[in-house]
Amino acid sequence: MTHPPSQRDFSADYNETNEDGTEVVPSSGGNPTDIYPEWSWDHVRTYVSIRHANRFCKTQIRALAAQDIVMLEKYNGPKTYGSTEEGTLQAAKRIKAVNPNVKILAYLNAMVHYSGKSYAANKSWKDEWAMIDPKNKSEFKWRERHQCYDHRNLEFREWWIQRALNMVAHDEIDGVFIDGIVKTDKRFLPVKNHGKAYLATANELRERLPPGKILIGNGLRANTSNKNGYLEHLEYRKFVSVVASFLFFRAYHASSCDPSSVDGSYLENWGRQENLAPTLKLMSAALKKGRIIMLNGAPRNVNQAEYDQMRKLDDRYDYLGKPEIISFSVGFFLLVAEPHAYLSYHSGVDAHPRMLAVFDNTRFEAITRKLGKPLGDYVKNGNEYTREFEYLKVWVNLKTTQALLTVKDDQDTLPSVPSASGQSSSRPSSPDSSTSQSSRKGTSRGILDEL
Q1: Is 361 helix (H, G, I), strand (E, B) or coil?
Q2: Among 26, 214, 258, 325, which one is least packed by beta carbons within 10 Å?
Q3: 8 Å CB contact between 433 and 424
Q4: 174-198: per-residue pLDDT in tens?
Q5: The pTM is what?
């Protein structure tokens, strides 16, 4: 049964033991389980990345409290609370008051300086810390707009680390999300080998971070000219409890990216067809080693013109919950889901009411329906992948980007449908299952595909 956020039974969601009474722990990896969100196979586990310049309303707080992980993005609450730091803390307190088991992460950027009065820390920021282009002696601006950090400066490094320590000093903040790590070593930066200076900063932060706090970062990309996929940004992994990384990759890079060296991954922009199979392999390898995976799920087959005309949030939730729009992201995720895999299915991260952002995973039956433990790993047959859970069957075609989610005990089969090759393909179906095709006429590739 799907519970509205205000009525959801959290005690049922967060089981500490398996049916046989044994403790639920990651399959391997050795990380202390008390820093992980509590886990069960009741339904798809979820996370949210979110911001609100003012104050979250009570309904939004209840929705956030129904997730496993909440990353409070940049620019949270400065208009109401005077600073992003205070806005983040107050939001965390309100979420924890509803559900203390939610893991709350505060945002910090590794490279881009967001100036202005929205951050209290900016009062002590010094412009002399900004990265300088030695050729013209002027500040190097990210996208010709933002000042950039220079991690070679030890005074700056202390200021940056202290920002993180100040946030995790609060019991309500469970860890830090470091964004933009791969930006620290871009080839076009005027400071060469700057990534090594950032790694020194990261090492020091990890060493000084209080025990039990989570460190999550945007730190790995594989579809770049960097031959090892920026794995040097994870050199401090021996200190890291959890590192979440954006994995942008192409199929020909998959073999060079060893997921066992990544403590955890946050994945987005995986929707291109050439990235689908490599994404599955990387997620599966990481999860089976007890790592955290946070997959950014994209609505697909969205008629953007029709969607943009919807001015009621309920209508947008209903629309994005249609099987042909949600099933591929959920099915793809479920092919490799293990403890601790988390899905976020949303249309945006700005919770201001005028944005009409869809972010509450608990409002989608495809996510909240009864799941149960997997009965095995996925089975691959050409472009078709299947996997069974106690209460659900999953079928996904990576070439046609079709997906079916079949509730057990319903009708198991429908007449076969043509595959991409023109041959018939037998696939499971039911009145509750769905087909998702990214190439339908008049639709976009998906709201989140390019975010």
Answers
A1: helix
A2: 258
A3: no
A4: 999 888 887 898 999 999 999 999 9
A5: 0.80
